[in-house]
């Protein structure tokens, strides 16, 4: 029984880690927080990981109920996430940072777009719902906790990259990855629309 539990736990952790893919978010974090001080970047990392934790745990326990109650499909989240990402990419290309009106968003960058839709996106939210139903509560809770720990460690490792790039290098990287974010956004919307009309 212990072996089965451990086998399920490993499968759940690996699958969730692959879907969340925190390493792939590192360039986007650089793009979003390139003009921030180290303290502000730390704050964004903290807000991001807390938001991701809330989303994953809430969806694991009551996600299917929430979606069915409001008649919302997970693919609607995918399309909405794509639209949000596209808006972010436009801001990064035109202003060099993620802003709203005349106010620069700092901690809020940890919510949109880092926590949702990049890390706790439709795939991750769907996966924790399935994990809860397939493997049970404890496997799901432990796997989420482990993946959150790994993700946070990766988020906090971004500072050395800033030191290597310097201010000018970070600005160049921001513009380059803004285009990649736009491509992510378009793909999110395309995939969501495909699933809706499948």
UniProtKB/TrEMBL annotation:
- Would the keyword Transmembrane be found if you checked this record's keyword annotation? yes
Cellular compartment(s): Cell membrane
Recite the UniProt keywords alphabetically. Answer: Cell membrane, Membrane, Transmembrane, Transmembrane helix
**Entries under InterPro entries matching the protein:** Multi_antbiot-R_MarC
What GO cellular component is one of the record's annotations?
Answer: plasma membrane
* Topology relative to the membrane: Multi-pass membrane protein
What PANTHER family does UniProt report for this protein, alphabetically? UPF0056 MEMBRANE PROTEIN YHCE
Q: Which family does it belong to?
A: Belongs to the UPF0056 (MarC) family.
- What is the protein's name according to its record? UPF0056 membrane protein
- According to its UniProt entry, this protein's organism is Nitrosotalea sinensis
């Amino acid at each position: 029984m212990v072996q089965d539990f451990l086998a399920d736990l490993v499968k759940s952790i690996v699958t969730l880690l692959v879907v969340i893919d925190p390493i792939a978010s590192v360039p986007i974090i650089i793009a979003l927080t390139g003009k921030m001080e180290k303290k502000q970047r730390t704050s964004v990392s903290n807000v991001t990981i807390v938001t991701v934790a809330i989303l994953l745990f809430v969806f694991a326990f009551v996600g299917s109920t929430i979606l069915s109650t409001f008649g919302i499909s997970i693919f609607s989240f995918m399309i909405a996430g794509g639209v949000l990402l596209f808006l972010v990419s436009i801001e990064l290309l035109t202003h060099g940072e993620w802003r709203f009106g005349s106010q620069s968003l700092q901690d809020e960058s940890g919510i949109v777009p880092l926590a949702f839709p990049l890390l706790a996106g439709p795939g991750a939210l769907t996966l924790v719902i399935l994990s809860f139903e397939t493997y049970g509560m404890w496997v799901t809770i432990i796997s989420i906790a482990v993946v959150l720990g790994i993700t946070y460690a990766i988020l906090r490792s971004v500072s050395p990259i800033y030191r290597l790039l310097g201010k000018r290098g970070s600005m160049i990287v921001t513009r380059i990855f803004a285009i990649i974010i736009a491509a992510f956004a378009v793909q999110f919307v395309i995939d969501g629309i495909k699933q809706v009309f499948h």
